[in-house]
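Hello K.,

You asked for the raw outputs rather than the summary table, so here they are, unedited. I folded two proteins back to back in the same session to keep the settings identical. This is the first:
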Amino acid sequence: MEKMMNTSEEKEKVILVAVDLEDGTDMEYSLDELRELSETAGAQTVGRLIQKREAVHPGTYIGKGKIEELKDMIRWEKADAIVCDDELSPAQITNLQEELQIKVIDRTVMILDIFAAHAKTSEGKLQVEMAQLRYRASRLAGLGKSLSRLGGGIGTRGPGEKKLEADRRLIKERISILNRQLKEVAQNRETMRRQRLRNQTPTVAIVGYTNAGKSTLLNTLTEAKVWEEDKLFATLDPTTRALELADGQKILFTDTVGFISKLPHSLVRAFRSTLEEAKYADLILHVVDSSNIHYPLQMEVVCDTLKELGVRDKPVLTVFNKIDRGKPELPMEVKDFKGDDTAFISAKEKTGIEALLEKTERLLNAGFVRIEKTFSYDEAGKIQLIRQYGKLEEEQYTEEGIFVRAGVPAEIEGKL
């Protein structure tokens, strides 16, 4: 019992704060998501405050009256910090901390903190540290003495306070080193992509809002054994696994980092080489949490983020996941007009997977004709034609000639 009490005492108590610009944004949903982020970061939400304004206060984010109200809430709830639902300027952070005498965290720091806690591979850690340092370097001048008052808890994971209190020159040097290391990572990814292109193995990128079930789907399809947890950003590091279909065709599936509203630009920039797996894929599986009543908004965020990454003109299969939760709000005939087809599954219960794979195969092979043929050695030049325009899946040298299994455009088939 005593151990449980100690555990609860270690959690930071936070109050969530947001400005409602009355632009149609569902602020309660936004704060619900911020609460989930806070819980994922290890904090306990003890209150929330929303102020309706035409614009955020340039100096303190919220107005003077709400600051006084917030002071009372902090005293009453014995809060350790406030978490604001937007990215704050250095001046706003400094002024709020002076007014409230309490740690002030914004949404960006919260997301960066979660990424720092969940990054497992050396690549992931490099990307997170880069994002954190870029974010904080731009704020060093404005934060001043407030940096040294941050203490422990949320917002202090990753590079550590000693690095953050160093001068701009040291941080700039560290960013320069990270840039070189990340360029090497990006080059390695590019080499792997070129190898996949040479092998003509079709690739499918699994994208979606955080916690939509992407990792669970990858595990169900390929037994990848990727970590699954019902938390935001449970997995950060992309995993690629192969799946062989019934007809022998091999497909590579890649799980990608989840998206979220107001995803920090510093993170998008640092994780660009990882996120761009979608840019070079032959097909995108857009996984949607159909049990979340806000799924249309989440779908919009994913589409906007893909546009920001330059992912265009790719076939998209929209996968409505978690249908086992039986939400009546989602009619089974619903269509995603931005996608090319729709599938309804439960990745956890392995429902609808066969139909999903059939649609995946059909979209990947759209406009292609499947051939299985043995070419004589005199016809070896035709195989180069397949490599150039089609998808060469298997090539075997036998006594009779060269056996080929491939998908080729219909207009090429006649030449073979």
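The second followed immediately with the same parameters:
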Amino acid sequence: MERFTKLKAFCDEIGCVCLEHEPMAVHTSFRIGGPVRLFLRPRDEREASQVIHQASSLQIPLVYVGKGSNLLVSDDALELAVLCLREDHVQPVLTQMPEEPSKALITCFAGMGLRALCTFALHHRLTGLEFAYGIPGSVGGAVYMNAGAYGGEMREIVRSVEYLDAQGELHTIDTTELNFSYRHSWFCEHPDCLITAVTICLSTGEPQAIHAKMEELMGRRVSKQPLDYPSAGSTFKRPQGAYASALIDQCGLKGLRVGGAMVSEKHAGFLINYDHATCADVQQLIQQVQQRVQQQTGFSLECEVRRLGIG
């Protein structure tokens, strides 16, 4: 029996959702991406561990994704399996800290959306996560890339992370070992490890003030970012001593198009799917922006977006 067929049969046996030839365009915020051989949706850590172990035994290449909000996928059919944790199955656990009465821990499933976690924190009168309210990713993805906005980053609140290794064995790593830096964590060097749960530490606060901050930051996003078009957020990392969006704007690149991909006229740091863009369109646009900025300013822009199936 062919190995992908065996993995599909195993998933059916344990009750894990397993979709065949699933288009990745459905699972990325860019709305771009061809079909993958299998798309797996484990309900929890135990199910994920079983699937990872089986895939490893069958020598099937396995890639982990969250909400696909920082991902560009090839238009070609990919002979691999993609695993994406479900976000609606495991509820967060709140733990009070007797030794620090003004603080509390939240442990949540990595597939949970950041926005949902922010709402959970607000409901329990906890502050420190407001910066993440408008970030359209999962908690696991946010830890993976040390997501941040408006002066806050995940590294400031993460206490520990649970993950599965390439054989499906469970481990725990604390914040001192996570090697957090700008848009980077230990997991960037260990892509064969799947983040399954995250524990964060927040402080008690005033619900009205927390809600007001969340709404203020969301309002700033809506006013400044092209949220009405598919994109992967900020396309480039912030170079030392400058801002990517300012450099791109300075070079007069707003509105630059390649096929259906375009540099947003609203925010130069966003490359958007303006009109049925392909992966190749976005790739070529990224290269053109990088070349023009390098030539005109001397700055090298590093792409922040993860790529799948692209050489």
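The first helix runs from residue 3 to 14.

Happy to rerun anything if the numbers look odd on your end.

Regards,
P.
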